[in-house]
Each structure stands twice: as structure tokens, then as C-alpha cells.
Specification:
It contains 4 helices and 2 strands; from the N terminus they run βαβααα. By secondary structure, the protein is α+β, with helices and mostly antiparallel strands.
């Protein structure tokens, strides 16, 4: 992670005490780590339904994650950097 500009954690359960927290705890002693975006469920329980619908509702679907990451990258590193990423994806 120390050579990365951004980390992302996607977990299909509660944010509190989840994977993001565990990763942050492991990386903290190394200091100077890049930002870590977290996609998880925020203190809600008792939902049932189709997985795709629930992922969309809680912002865990791919289009939402890409949108948030794109906004972050453009804000922090500029449009040109995002365009380089888009070129690599093709």
C-alpha cells in the first residue's frame, strides 16, 4: 500500500468493526499510508431481498463504487490522471 495513491475496501456487512477497521489497524503502525475508501453498510439491519438490489441500495454495486473512486481521483489528482486510468482499463 505504501506505493499506492488510494485503497478501497468493499464489504457486504456492517462498517463498524469490519474489514476497513481491521485493515486500518494493520496499516496504522506504518504511517504515511494513502487514503482508504470504505464501502459498507452503515448501521442498518434486517434487510432482505435480491443481492443485486441490496448492493445497489447500500452503495455496494460496481457503478456506485466506480463513481465514488472517480470523483475522489479527479478531486485529488486531476482529470488527466483519471484519463490515464481509463486508458489502462481498455
Amino acid at each position: 500500500m505504501k506505493h499506492s495513491k488510494l485503497g478501497c475496501v468493499v464489504e457486504e456487512h456492517q462498517r463498524d468493526c469490519g474489514l476497513h477497521n481491521a485493515i486500518s489497524s494493520v496499516l496504522a503502525p506504518y504511517g504515511n499510508m494513502p487514503p482508504l475508501l470504505s464501502f459498507a453498510i452503515n448501521n442498518q439491519f434486517g434487510e432482505s431481498g435480491k443481492k443485486t438490489e441490496l448492493f445497489k441500495k447500500f452503495g455496494l454495486d460496481a457503478p456506485h463504487i466506480v463513481k465514488v473512486v472517480e470523483q475522489y481521483v479527479k478531486q485529488e489528482h486531476g482529470n488527466e490522471f483519471w484519463q490515464e486510468i481509463e486508458q489502462m482499463r481498455r
